[in-house]
Specification:
alpha+beta, two-stranded antiparallel ribbon, about 30% helix
Length: about 90
């Protein structure tokens, strides 16, 4: 036996709201398009991404700390209405 395992490492990311590390699949990717922060559940939109737990608590913390603006390196404040709407829809299911 070589000691190697067949289990693949799961990539981890840090939530910009609560600053907790979690599996990439457990977090929601958000990207900046113009001056708006939009959800990217498939993870295929181009550009820099920021990860947040799909919960209103983490989203509110990230907005209060201006974490999306910093993480996405945006020049000004970002509108998070589309992201909030997406989180509210997925959180209520």
């Amino acid at each position: 036996m070589s000691g190697r395992t067949r289990a693949r490492a799961c990539p981890e990311r840090t939530c910009v709201g609560c600053r907790q590390r979690a599996a990439k699949t457990d977090l929601l990717r958000a990207v900046a398009i113009k001056d708006e922060c939009v959800p990217d559940p498939s993870g295929t939109l181009p550009g820099r991404g920021a990860y947040v737990h799909p919960a209103l608590v983490c989203l509110d913390q990230a907005v209060r700390r201006r974490a999306f603006t910093r993480a996405l390196r945006a020049p000004g404040a970002l509108d998070v209405k589309a992201l909030r709407r997406y989180v509210e829809q997925t959180d209520s299911c």
